[in-house]
Model the fold of this input.
Amino acid sequence: MDFPFLLRTLPKLWSPLQVTIAVSLVSLGLGFALGISLGLLRVAIADWLPVRIAIDAYVWLVRGTPIIVQIYAAFFLLPKIGIQLPLFWVGVVALTFNSVGYQIEIVRAAVESISTGQREAARAMGMSAGMTLCSILLPQAVQRMIPPLTNELSNLVKASSVLSAIALFELHKASNAIAASTYKYVEVLVLQALLYFVVIQSLSWVARYLETRVFAFDGELAIEREQVAMVRA
Done:
């Protein structure tokens, strides 16, 4: 193992690593905005068959096709409909499309996991279905979403390596270029794996902190506060 080579190569991978992190975080953020909207819609109007079928069909499409097919679809189909984007944003579109399909199910499962007793208590207080969903169920569901969302972000970081297929110069693409020019395949592979590991573990630690310290939430306390607020009103 050529350790001096690893030390010389590490700075060259810093910019591609930033691209990997950026495309993953932007995709997760956009995916969450769309996923939470569609997930809540899926819960709120579960009895409206056309919308439910449309959302479920989207989820099935995402889960039933490989990420590489979705990336190529974004790369080749977007120009066909007149949308010209830089490679970074083509990658964001592809990863977001993929992530939304999983985040819809994360949101739906988290909301539906809240006990029905809390829904009944909120409705007994006179709260509407929308208020119950947004004020009682969603805040509790957010805490339950954090572990699967962390896993989804980890998957996006790893899936971003497939963007090398459309020549986005992210960590995997840059590593391959260095390995091909230096013939240090083992060293570059080890360094690449180490960087992915550090990024994913760091994200896991941040998510664990958020879950235990920031988003800790007591559902029964929330209902009591709503009751107090309604009495005072």
Q: What stands out?
A: Residues 218-233 have pLDDT under 50 and may be disordered. The two ends are 71 Å apart (CA to CA). Residues 17 and 171 are 5 Å apart (CA to CA).
